[in-house]
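Inverse folding, one chain.
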């Protein structure tokens, strides 16, 4: 069963505003079934049964199984990844932390909590990002040039403050995403634990990789 916070992402994106209670139940059931079995192995019949509705109710709103999947991943594309890097693009970031460890600890803990609060939705989304080129391209469009300029400016400031290694910014971001992304994929797709010990190890790995 979902943990009660999974719909917040959709509420924040105003996706639920024009949905009936029955349609919200269908959306929740689809999240559960897709997360448990994967998109390819799920059926609209099983989703309808889980939601306590007829299959016709699914088709009238979402058209088909793919329409249900799109209703789940589009709000994630529109909100989740910009939110994930919000702190990095914040103008105040370089002045908020006096050590690299404090910076990484704050960023990782916030992201891990978001991950746990939205695990089922993110499991579906990550699977699509890994295997669907269209979804990957859609994701890239959500980072406009100004957003990247903000990230680059703040990484440069961190380097000037001697908080981070003096590497190319893209290389720094690749290191961050490879370490954090590995922990995320392990947790979502392979049921690997992500408790305090694993979080601490992730933070330590990032600090060691990026320390000046």
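Residues assigned per position:
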């Amino acid at each position: 069963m979902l943990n009660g916070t999974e719909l917040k992402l959709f509420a924040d994106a105003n996706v639920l505003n024009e949905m009936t209670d029955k349609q919200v139940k269908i959306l929740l059931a689809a999240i559960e079934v897709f997360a448990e079995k994967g998109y390819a192995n799920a059926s609209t019949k099983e989703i309808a049964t889980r939601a306590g509705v007829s299959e016709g109710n699914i088709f009238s709103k979402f058209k088909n199984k793919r329409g249900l999947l799109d209703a789940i991943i589009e709000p994630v594309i529109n909100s989740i990844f910009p939110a994930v890097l919000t702190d990095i693009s914040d103008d105040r970031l370089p002045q908020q932390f006096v050590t690299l460890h404090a910076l990484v600890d704050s960023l990782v803990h916030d992201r891990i909590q978001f991950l746990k609060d939205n695990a089922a939705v993110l499991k579906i989304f990550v699977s699509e990002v890994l295997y669907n080129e269209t979804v990957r391209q859609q994701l890239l469009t959500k980072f406009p040039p100004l957003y990247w300029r903000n990230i680059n400016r703040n990484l440069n400031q961190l380097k000037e403050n001697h908080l981070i290694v003096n590497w190319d910014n893209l290389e720094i971001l690749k290191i961050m995403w490879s370490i954090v992304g590995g922990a995320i994929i392990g947790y979502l797709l392979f049921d690997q634990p992500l408790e305090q010990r694993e979080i601490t190890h992730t933070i330590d790995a990032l600090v060691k990789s990026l320390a000046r």
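Residues 108 and 203 are 7 Å apart (CA to CA). The two ends are 44 Å apart (CA to CA).
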